[in-house]
Every structure is written in structure tokens, then in C-alpha cells.
Amino acid sequence: MAVEGQKGETGLSAQALAYKHLSDEIRSGRLPGGTHVAAETVAQQLSISRMPVREAIRQLASEGYMTMRSNRGAIVTELAPQDVAELFEIRAALEGFAAALIAARIDAEGLHEAEIALQRLERARSDVDWFVRAHDQFHDIFLQYCPRPRLVAEVVRFRTATEPCLRINLRNCPTALVNTVDEHREVLAAMGSGDSAASEACMRSHILQGMGIVHLLGNVA
Amino acid sequence: MAVEGQKGETGLSAQALAYKHLSDEIRSGRLPGGTHVAAETVAQQLSISRMPVREAIRQLASEGYMTMRSNRGAIVTELAPQDVAELFEIRAALEGFAAALIAARIDAEGLHEAEIALQRLERARSDVDWFVRAHDQFHDIFLQYCPRPRLVAEVVRFRTATEPCLRINLRNCPTALVNTVDEHREVLAAMGSGDSAASEACMRSHILQGMGIVHLLGNVA
DNA sequence: GTCGGCCAGATTGGATACACGTATGCTTAT
DNA sequence: ATAAGCATACGTGTATCCAATCTGGCCGAC
């Protein structure tokens, strides 16, 4: 087995490779919730042994993406609609708080970058994948101005966890794309005014309402 | 090596044992931040092999309690004052949001339980350990009325991460205990009124101001 | 005297080997 | 025909083994 070839090509450790592979597969939706993931199979696909795969699975499990069942392997975590709604709510609370900090700190350059990202978002309205990428970039520009690295990490974590569902929602509900762009414009305006409270409220409601999840809530409260 | 004895005694898998052991050591402070943890050493202490220890370390790393450095082992994560402050802020944002949900949902029985916990808190003012226990109980009563299990889990996670630091703060600043009791009374009053916004604000400021961390902030913004 | 390279010990990352638990499919008895 | 019991195969969990990398001290050269 040409292991040295693998390392030379990728520059990644075996376990980092396994983590990245599984993470991508889950996030893209190629591994839907409930799928049984056999460590041996993944190991063979990547030409590595089961051990790094096991560790990657454990890490994904501790991050909530997978569920380990004793002696019965791991499955991709299945998210019920109310679970997804809850993740959006948590992200809204966190990113709202972050927005308050960012509004007091962002400068003209950051606002300009966000404006550019917003235009890119408008142009990407026809393609969900591009849209999601541009959408993430827009939010990331703001997060660069958040002086709380752990908070940023948590926001990204929850956004990542909800991304497969976001794609589905956008595909099923094309009008959501247009609404989302408008909401982003409002967020940008609030940020530009430097009003922390307004930015927080705006970001919160954007995340909650703009994602087309409101219809999933309702009976969850 | 009498492996079967281990399993029979503990009922835990080797990796669960390693995780629990390391987790307890870190949280109790016996393994202070910066300590280098050699997998082999831990494995010998627990009479297991290095492998489950490795997995436990990886999980602790993905939860933030340890930091893995490539090919150089793992160290217990060191929390700078601004890191702790950030954890408190995140918890404030999350538990504040939870409080808003709880205020709309808690009933007379829950309020009565909280009242009892509050009295227990007053009686525990002389001992930090009892105080922390009673304090956790008070917050947990509210969390029982939060209809968002993941949110509750996150709140508990951040509270756990900051607990060692909370003890230190309380010991250094005895007046904080008195202030904290007053703040809890305010939180309880807000909950009793059923006002979500007030409860959220109250809980947020309680966590931020009541923990004696305000003096650590200041220059972090 | 000090700085730089080199070798030895230690430690980590990864692979293989083995034992246990679980699931699945067959056989058999009712 | 159906259901219970058993056997086999698959997959997981752990231990041991090997290779690669890092750390620290020693020796030599400037």
C-alpha cells in the first residue's frame, strides 16, 4: 500500500484526511442522516487503516454530526425538523450577539467588502450552491470583525451543522433566496449605522425568518 | 493483563474510562492548563492501552479541553482571562435566550421550586462549594422548563467549562456571593412576571455581572 | 567560549492482529 | 407454514507492533 504517496500528495495526516472526507460527505448531503458508516469501508476508500477513521468518527460524533452506538458502529445523525429549527435558533442567538459586537467595531473597509459580497449574492440567486457559498462569505466578512474567536467558532459550527438543511430549504422555496438578499441588505444597513442593538435584532430575525424555517416552527414553542 | 477484570468492575469501555478520568482530572484542576498529557502514561495508570486514551484525548480536544499539537502530543488547554470572559459571554447569550423561552412557559410549581433553591442558595453563602452546587441547581430548575434540549446542553457545556474559574472568583471576592443571591432574586421575579424580554435581559446581565468577571473585561472590547 | 550539527532516547501516528458482540440467514421442530 | 434456535459472517473495540518525528544532550569546529 503506497502510504507515502498519499501523504506526499495531500500533506494531511491520515486522520485529518478521514475527518475532512466524512465531514464533506455529510455536509454535502451525500451521506444523509441515518446512514451507517463502516470504518473499514471508509478506510479502504481512502487507502488508510481503520484507526484514523475511528478517531475522525469520534470527533464528528462529539461535534454532533454522527452518533456512535456501542458495538454497532456509527450512523450519520438524523436531524428532525425541530432539531434543525433549534440549531437555527441557537445560531441566531449567538450570531445576533456577535452582530452587536461587530456593529461597534466594523470599519468602512469591512462595510465595503460586505457590500461587494452582497452584490455577489444577488448575482448568485439562480444557483443554490453558489448562493450558499456567497452567503457564507457575506457572514464571514462580518465575523472577521468579531473580537471573540470562540464565539466565531461556535457560530460557524452551528451554521455548518444546518447547511445541508439550508440547501434543501432554498431548493424547495425559491422565493426564500430573494427574501434572504433583502434581509442581508437590512443587516448591512444596521451594521453601517453602528447601532449594536439594531444589528443584533436584525441579524437574529434574519437568521430565524430568512431561512424558510418559520413554517417548521409554530408548534415547537 | 487482566483486562476482563477492568470491564467487569467498571462496566465502562476502555475509552469511556479514559475520557472520564481525564475529564475529571482537568475539571477538578488536578491537571492545570498547559500540562503535557502523555498517552502512554495515562494508559498505564488505567491499565489499558494507548489507543482508547488517544481517542479520549481527541474527543476532549474537539470539546476544547485539550489542544493537540502535531507529533508533539496533547496539552491541557490554557484559558487566558479573556477566554474565560468570552465563555461567560457566550453562556450569557445562550442562557439569556433560554430564559426568554422559559419565562413564557414556567408554571407555579417551577417558580416554587426555584424559590426553594434560592433559599438554599442564601443558606449556602458561607461555603463556596455548596454555593456552586446550589447555584447550579437553581439554574437547572429553570432549564427543566426550556423546550430546547440542544440549547440546554450547550448552556450546561459552557457552564461546566467555566466552573473552575467561577469557584476561584467566588473565593477571591466574597461580596460576589451576596450580589449573586440578589441577582438570582431578580431573575426569579422576572420569570414570575412572565416577561420574556425582561427575563432575557436579567439573566444575561446576571451571568455577566454577577460572576465577578466584569473587572476582567474592560480592555477586551 | 559559543554555536551548530549529529546521534540517542522518547513519544507520537499509524497499521496490523485478535477477541468480543451483534446481526443475519438457515435449519429444524412444532 | 411459522417460529425458535443455532451457526456463521460481519463489524467493532482493544492490544501490540512498526515507522516516522521530535527533544535533548554531546561532540566538534570556528
Can you offer a commentary on this structure?
2 copies of one chain form a homodimer. Chain A is mainly α. Chain A has 2 domains: 3-76, Arc Repressor Mutant, subunit A; 81-216, Four Helix Bundle (Hemerythrin (Met), subunit A) (Up-down Bundle). Helices cover 71% and strands 4% of the residues of chain A. The first copy, chain A, has helices spanning 3-10, 14-28, 39-46, 50-62, 81-103, 108-123, 128-143, 149-172, 175-193, 196-210, and strands at 36-37, 66-68, 74-76. The first copy, chain A, has a 3-stranded antiparallel β-sheet with strand order 1-3-2. The longest helix of chain A has 24 residues, at 149-172. Chains A and B meet through α4, α5 and α8 of A and α4, α5 and α8 of B.
CATH architecture of the largest domain in chain A: Up-down Bundle
What top-tier CATH class of the largest domain in chain A fits best?
A: Mainly Alpha
SSE order of chain A, one letter for each helix or strand: HHEHHEEHHHHHH
Our measurement of the CA-to-CA distance between the termini of chain A, rounded to an integer number of angstroms, reads 55 Å
Strand content of chain A: under 5%
Structural key phrases:
Arc Repressor Mutant, subunit A; 221 residues; Four Helix Bundle (Hemerythrin (Met), subunit A); homodimer
